[in-house]
Design the sequence.
């Protein structure tokens, strides 16, 4: 009895759901498309992010950027003393930048003073013979207190080195250092100190950071030349449109410029040549036009033309302009965020229409012909669209020793309007690598 | 212009889908959507989860369709994909499921004729009232034809548990049908 009931219930459920009717297929298809797009975007970022990170790390490794962080940040400098005596030494990175032309520079001081004499330099442990790293102290009280003794102890160096040191201190605080230095004149510096003092100044990137965080920077604003940077820009990206994310990996190369309008904010502009590709649903007219050639060769009674798929490959020029906010919080890198608009024009347009022609002949036989029709339009600088895409990017900038800096910048360009013959709204998302062009790079 | 895709056979659609024909994919989706929902709804907690599982199944279908053996029938193969997706969805949403106490129903003599009057929505309501694991085991074994060993593998439970759950599911379904449909049927008479 029970078994019979169970069997009937099972069969009924099977029969009912085998012919289950659900009218929400269109809604389901829309959700499916959305899900596929989301998944493709996820896959894209999953595969693009690790190589981008790996590339950045490889570059760091290649340029051997694993040196002490303090040298890179410009917040301190290293003094190596051969025999003893930790010495508190004060620097101002911007001044060092001026003196050393923004580059690493080594100054060697020879001191003829004995260790016992050095103990009177305002230091704490004269018997210690270790290499000592000294951190910059922007405290003027400490400058007043330490600096004269230090100069008294090591004040037998050559006149040029002394002048450098003096300039550094004067620039830090004229009121604090001038009275102290008035006692020590160049003739007193004839004897060289016996200690080897190695001064390493900060690289330009670090100096810029130090300038940004230094409250006294109003005294020495950067020159207009330093406000302006030019960089080489190479981007790899994928395009997306209403139809979905295109699988082709495209490339753009060009130049980018940056003009700093305040400590953290800058205006960026650039120009790059790029290739974009996307799939799209061609208009009926386009399909029919494309099919005409094929139909001419087919002797068919009742052809039904349909467009399986269409794709576009566009070569163009992109002119982005953006506002960038840079943070100077990081020691080894800066992060930044930028947003702006891109204007575009096209150099070459290629469209590929996949045409499917189904023919029902008089005998009732159905045949299908599929062809790919290519359309090419070469109208350089046509279709100029101002503010075609809205751009957003976040990135990090690494210094490459004291030579240059490189930035890794994932970006998204959201289409605001269509362009090209098919008026395609194509966005893109990818990673941009920018290499700052500096004089040192070409030396 | 008339779209020819609706008139194409399953096999023709499959061969077009293999060439990443977007419209063929859409046509195949719409053709198998209801069938897939019929399977998925029986497993999932609600309609949204069922649709999610169905879309996952279609993604798997279009991804693996290039390797599909033409000698096989697509429906049983796709049914398997939908069942697997639904079970995965069940795992994800397990914490949201609830178990209802249905012990209130008394065992009554059942009327077999009323079974044929139960429609799909009512069947789903009946299944919803089963404890979640009972429902899944019942669907897998009775409707989709899996063995207890296969169910044990899929659900990561002992096969003896699968047998027990099936037995309880059937028992509870009998009670539910009896209490909800037999009574109404009697009243209607």
Sequence:
């Amino acid at each position: 009895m029970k078994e019979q009931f169970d069997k009937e219930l099972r069969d009924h459920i099977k029969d009912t759901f085998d012919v289950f009717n659900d009218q929400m297929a269109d809604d389901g298809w829309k959700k499916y498309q959305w899900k596929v797009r989301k998944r493709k975007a996820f896959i894209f970022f999953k595969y693009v992010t690790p190589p981008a990170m790996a590339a950045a790390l490889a570059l760091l490794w290649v340029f051997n950027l694993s040196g002490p962080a303090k040298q890179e940040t410009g917040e301190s400098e290293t003094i190596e003393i051969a025999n003893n005596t930790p010495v508190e030494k004060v620097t101002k990175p911007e001044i060092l930048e001026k003196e050393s032309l923004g580059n690493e520079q080594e100054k060697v001081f020879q001191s003829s003073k004995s260790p016992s004499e050095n103990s009177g330099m305002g230091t704490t442990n004269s018997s210690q013979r270790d290499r000592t790293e000294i951190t910059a102290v922007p405290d003027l009280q400490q400058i007043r207190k330490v600096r004269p003794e230090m100069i008294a102890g090591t004040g037998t160096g050559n006149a040029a080195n002394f002048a450098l040191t003096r300039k550094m201190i004067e620039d830090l605080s004229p009121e604090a250092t001038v009275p102290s230095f008035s006692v020590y004149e160049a003739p007193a510096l004839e004897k060289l100190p016996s200690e080897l003092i190695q001064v390493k100044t900060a690289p330009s990137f670090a100096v810029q950071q130090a300038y940004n965080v230094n409250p006294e920077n109003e005294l020495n604003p950067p020159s207009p030349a330093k406000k302006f940077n030019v960089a080489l820009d190479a981007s790899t990206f994928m395009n997306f449109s209403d139809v979905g994310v295109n699988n082709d990996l495209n490339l753009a190369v060009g130049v980018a410029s940056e003009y700093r309008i305040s400590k953290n904010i800058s205006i960026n502009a650039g120009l790059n040549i790029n290739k974009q590709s996307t799939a799209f649903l061609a208009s009926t007219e386009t399909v029919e036009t494309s099919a005409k050639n094929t139909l001419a060769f087919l002797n068919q009674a009742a052809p039904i033309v349909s467009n399986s798929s269409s794709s576009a490959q566009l070569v163009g020029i992109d002119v982005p302009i953006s506002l960038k906010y840079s943070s100077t919080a990081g020691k080894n890198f800066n992060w930044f965020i930028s947003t702006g608009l891109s204007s575009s024009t096209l150099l070459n347009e290629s469209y590929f229409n996949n045409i499917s022609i189904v023919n029902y002949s008089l005998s009732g036989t159905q045949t299908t012909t599929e062809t790919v029709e290519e359309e090419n339009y070469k109208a350089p600088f046509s279709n100029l669209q101002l503010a075609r895409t809205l751009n957003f990017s976040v990135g990090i900038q690494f210094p490459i020793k004291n030579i240059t800096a490189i930035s890794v910048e994932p970006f998204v360009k959201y289409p605001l309007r269509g362009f090209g013959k098919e008026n395609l709204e194509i966005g893109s998302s990818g990673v941009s690598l920018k290499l700052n062009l500096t004089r040192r790079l070409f030396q | 212009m008339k779209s020819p895709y609706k008139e194409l056979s399953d096999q023709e659609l499959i061969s077009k889908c293999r060439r990443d024909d977007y419209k063929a994919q859409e046509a195949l989706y719409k053709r198998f959507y209801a069938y897939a929902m019929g399977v998925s709804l029986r497993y999932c907690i609600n309609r949204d989860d069922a649709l999610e599982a169905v879309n996952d199944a279609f993604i798997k279908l279009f991804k693996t369709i290039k390797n599909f053996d033409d000698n096989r029938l697509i429906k049983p193969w796709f049914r398997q994909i939908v069942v697997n997706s639904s079970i995965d969805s069940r795992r994800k949403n397990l914490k949201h499921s609830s178990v209802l106490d249905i012990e209130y129903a008394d065992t009554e003599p059942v009327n077999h004729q009323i079974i044929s009057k139960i429609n799909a929505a009512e069947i789903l309501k009946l299944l919803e009232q089963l404890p979640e694991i009972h429902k899944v085991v019942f669907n897998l074994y009775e409707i989709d034809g899996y063995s207890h060993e296969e169910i044990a593998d899929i659900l990561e439970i002992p096969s003896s548990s699968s047998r027990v759950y099936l037995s309880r599911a059937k028992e509870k379904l009998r009670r539910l049908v009896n209490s909800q449909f037999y009574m109404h049927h009697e009243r209607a008479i």
Notes: Chain B touches chain A at residues 1-5, 16, 19-24, 26, 29-30, 33-35, 37-39, 41-42, 51, 54-56, 58-59, 110, 112, 115-116, 118-120, 123, 142-143, 170, 173-174, 177 (CB under 8 Å).
